[in-house]
Amino acid sequence: MHLRDRFRVWAPLGAALVVLLAACRSQDASQSPPSTATGQIGKSSGPVILAIEKQEHIWDIEHVAFELEQKFGKTLGQALQQRDTDAIQGLCRAGFEVLFPSSGRSVRYDLGFVQEVRTDADDAPGASRDAAQFANYLQTYFADFDKFEKVTCRVLDLHVDNNDPATGYWDVTLFLAGVGKDRQAGFVEFTSEHQLRCYFTDDAAIESGRILDRWAVRSAVHRHSASPLFEEVTQQFGLDRVDIQDNWNVAKDKVRQYDTQMAAADFDRDGFHDLAVASSNGRWRLLRSMAGEKFAEVTDEFGLPTWADEEPRSRSVNDQVYLATWIDIDNDGFSDLILGDRLYRNREGRRFEDITDSSGIVFGYNPRGCVVADYDCDGRLDLYVLYQLPRAANREETPAWVGDDDTGLENHLWRNTGHGHFENVTEFANAGGGKRQSFAASWLHANGDHYPDLYIANDFGTNVLLINQGNGKFRDGSGEAGVSDYATSMGVATGDMTGDGRPEIYVANMFSKMGRRIIAHVAPEDYPEGIFQQIQGSCAGNRLYVAKEGVSQYHETSEVAGVNTVGWAYAPALADFDADGQLDIYATTGFLSYQRGKPDG
Fold this sequence. Notes:
15% of the residues lie in helices and 32% in strands. The strands form 7 sheets. Strands 1, 2, 3, 4, 5, 6, 7 and 8 form an 8-stranded mixed sheet that branches.
């Protein structure tokens, strides 16, 4: 039986697969691949059809990757954890050889609380060894491990000889990693990449495990830390009792992707940061830090409504507004608060007063967030509000998966005119950012003057850098700066990471091993001009833009810096966590899970 007829198991959905095989994104595992695949690219370009033969080939390749990870990978991982030399040898075919690097480079880094050793193999062929030596060598990677928390095997790339699965010969790039504890209860981590030559013709051969003809080491990284940088203190600080919706405990039709926003500030100026929380169900909270030892809910005590609909409104309650933002609107040193769709003035840290109606601010449907800066340098803080539209099926305009710069909403710039009043200057300032699905933004000084510029991260569409011209207006400088190349952005943080006085831009994008495997089997000629590059971007991972010397331009360095492979990324943060004088990156990741015992996000 032909391999294509045997391999019919649906693998987990990746970002690029949504684009390349959009028509099958809800197909069941037992079903055959779809007859067509479309990736909507921009409002006016129409659907893009990938050739059926290429769809079939990708389907076959992805099934093989799934089988390798689920069967061969798990067998190898278990053998390593059990230090089972015989089981490792059992994965090797007759004539197997492993190529050790002839002169691998090892570099040791002392990163403060973490020590790291990186080894990269050169291109010269190394010494060949047999299966027994290979089994012993592979276990040396985990010699420091006393206890294993997890061993991971993932297929990064996969190619079959002559594009024909019937040949049985496959070249596999394998990611092998482990996390655990050493004998002193310190933390150890190992990550590596390897090039494998395998032979198998069907599922049963993969399941047998004896598929390895050759194994070559490409790179390896060992990390060790005697103690953690962070510790989990949620329960200790009383935050586990905050009744934020738990998606594992609600019906599937009640699950929400985005439910809650939080913002931190020392609103009462006692030296400890407090938390404001807003949820999509209308539940609002003010959590006061009690001398840095725990948080207490003081929402009622400080004059804030516990629920969004507790007090009469001059307009209907917008249940799609769950903003939480601190902004000192009157320069009195006490942070005022946007909570839900209301603006509250902070009365010297003793109570809050609702001044929404007199402020002039009106929030539209479904704002994603707010960012604060004195954009016109008049001494008063202004407000930029980000907007999206839901990607609903009944929309007149069909949203695109990538390159969607037309089906969202313009953002709003609210200028602080003093005395608690704001005016919407979006149109005058040319600050809307286009009709995109904006997810996050960050103020920064991109061109060296003292007027803050604005970077906007957009989901599905291109990102935007608005250059402040110093006359109350902005211009789009995205193209000249080179910072808007990819879509699927869901977060951004800016800061001077290199110490040269100029800020870098770190953008959260989706990274998908599966997606990158898929796009390795398509090419620019498979699509109309420009589309392939956008498809690449849909799973490129996080992007780090570093300012070029002497010009208002950036170059992208995420892969070189090792900061792109985050996953399904959201809001990152830059801060000096280890107090060494340099900014570090905290990069969040994850998505919806429906089973607590089987996180699938």
